[in-house]
Amino acid sequence: MSASTRSGPQLSRGEFGLLVLGLLHRRDMYGYEIVAELRRSTEGAIDLPEGTVYPALRRLEREGLASGYWVEAPGAAPRRRYYKLTQAGEHALATGMDDWHRFKVAADAVLGQ
Amino acid sequence: MSASTRSGPQLSRGEFGLLVLGLLHRRDMYGYEIVAELRRSTEGAIDLPEGTVYPALRRLEREGLASGYWVEAPGAAPRRRYYKLTQAGEHALATGMDDWHRFKVAADAVLGQ
DNA sequence: TCTAGGTACTTGGCAAGTCTATGTATGACC
DNA sequence: GGTCATACATAGACTTGCCAAGTACCTAGA
User: Fold this and answer.
1) Cβ of residue A11 near strand C, that is under 7 Å?
2) pTM score, two decimals?
3) CATH number of the domain residue B35 falls in
4) Across residues B25-37, what is the average pLDDT?
5) Which DSSP letter does residue A3 get?
6) How far apart are CA B37 and CA A113, in angstroms?
7) How far apart are CA B111 and CA A23, in angstroms?
8) Which one of B6, B93, B100, B110 would you mutate to disrupt binding with A, by most A Cβ within 10 Å of its Cβ?
9) What is the pLDDT of residues B65-94, one digit of tens each?
10) Looking at the complex, does the CB of residue B54 fall below 8 Å from at least one CB of chain A?
C-alpha cells in the first residue's frame, strides 16, 4: 500500500464545467451561445469546441446542476436548448470557485508566481 | 463542420505535468520527493498520488521534456530515479506558464474574478 | 524476532473528460 | 443553386487521473 488518504476533488477535471456554470450564473444560455461567448469574452484564450460544450451541458443536467428547456427561436431558426442553473448548481459554482481559487494560488506558488 | 480552427493546447490538460516541470526547474528531483514537496509547499491543496506522478514523469521523459537517471540512495535505502529538465522541457515550461497565465486571466474573467 | 511503518518505484485497469470529425436541419443571402 | 451561419448531436479515439495492489529494503520498537 501507499499514498495517504486523499481529500477533495483535484480540479482540472471538470474545470470547463465550472466555466459553464459561471456563464449560466449570469443568465440562461444555450450551447452555441456559450461557445461564442466564451471565445468572445476571453479573446480566444478559451475556445471550446461544440464537442466539449454539449457533453458538458448534458453532464451538468444529468447531475442536477442545470436544467434545460427548449425555446423556439425567433423567425424560424433552429430551436435552442437553454440551460438554467439550479440551486444545486449555484452551490456547486460557489464550491468550485473556492477550489479554483485554492488551486490557482497553490499552482502559482509551485510555478514561482 | 463547425468551430473555427483551434489554436494551442487548452491547458487543464497536462496541468499537472506543468507543475512537475515547475518543480524540476528549481532542481532535479525524484518522484517520491515530488509528491511530498507538492503536498508540503501547497499545504495540501495539491496532493497528487503516486499513481499520478510516476506516470506523469514517464510521460515527460517519453516526450523528451525531462531525462531520468538512477541514483543509489545513501545508506541502503531504495535507489531513486531523479529527473532533470531538458532544454525542450525548459521551453515547454515557459510556453506552459504563458498558457497557464492566459487561462487563469480568462477563467477569472468568466467567473467574475 | 516479529511487526509496523517509512522510503521508493511500478503497474493494471477503470472512469472520465476533451477533441476531432461528421452529421442533421433550417434560413438568409448572392 | 451554392454557400454561409445558426444550432444541436454523437461516435470514436485519445489522454489523464487515480485507486489499488505489489515489490523491496531499512529502521525502530516491543
Assistant:
1) no
2) 0.86
3) 1.10.10.10
4) 97
5) -
6) 17
7) 7
8) B110
9) 999 999 987 776 789 999 999 999 999 999
10) no
